[in-house]
């Protein structure tokens, strides 16, 4: 849950995340859509984790790169408290940049700082950034499960 605020991601960190997302893109398993996606996220402990989309012959079982990446952060967390992310890069080789899908926005909202940043990049080095709050305003979060009036 969101504890760290006002984290500044340096140009160097964005660049490292983009490189990691591109290498994850090259590992994608997308034989049905042929739409490879790579993601890399930065944890509050400054660790970079990667994910790619993993499709299935039963199409609905597909896992997006962003959610794969977040799951990698959960299993590779060295701390006893829940992993928290500050930034995530989505890499595709499309002229139109790839924003996270609705399901991924919900999962991002649970694990990222409120002012966490998401950046879409492509092979043409085009980029677009959003805050988590821009992607999913008024998100349903763990705080909404606290049953208090
Ligand atoms: N996909 C992602 O991995 N992330 C997104 O944000 C958008 C969609 C994947 C799912 C599927 O394997 C392929 O892209 C086409 O939808």
Question: Which helices and strands appear, and what pairs or packs with what?
Answer:
Elements: H1 11-25, E1 38-43, E2 48-52, H2 65-75, E3 85-92, H3 102-111, E4 112-122, E5 127-131, H4 132-135
Parallel strand pairs: 3-4
Antiparallel strand pairs: 1-2, 1-3, 4-5
Residues 30, 33, 35, 37, 53, 55, 62, 64-66, 98, 100-101, 104 line the site of tetrahydrodeoxyuridine.
Defining key terms:
149 residues; globular; binds tetrahydrodeoxyuridine; alpha+beta; Cytidine Deaminase, domain 2
CATH architecture tag: 3-Layer(aba) Sandwich
Instruction: Name the poorly predicted regions.
Output: none
As for the number of domains, it is: 1
- CATH topology-level name: Cytidine Deaminase, domain 2
Bound molecules: tetrahydrodeoxyuridine
Give, in order, the helices and strands.
HEEHEHEEH
Q: Helical content, roughly?
A: 25-40%
- The CATH class is identified as Alpha Beta
The value of Rg in angstroms is 15 Å
Count every helix, treating DSSP H or I runs of 4 or more residues as helices.
Answer: 4
Q: Mind describing the biggest β-sheet?
A: 5 strands, mixed
By secondary-structure content and strand pairing, the structural class works out as alpha+beta
The CATH superfamily is known as Cytidine Deaminase, domain 2
Q: Could you report the average pLDDT, rounded to the nearest whole number? A: 94
Structure description:
27% of the residues lie in helices and 23% in strands. It is of the alpha+beta class and 149 residues long. The protein has a single domain (11-146), classed as 3-Layer(aba) Sandwich (Cytidine Deaminase, domain 2), CATH 3.40.140.10. The chain has a five-stranded mixed sheet. The mean pLDDT is 94. The chain binds tetrahydrodeoxyuridine (THU). Tetrahydrodeoxyuridine (THU) binds at residues 30, 33, 35, 37, 53, 55, 62, 64-66, 98, 100-101, 104. Tetrahydrodeoxyuridine (THU) binds next to α2.
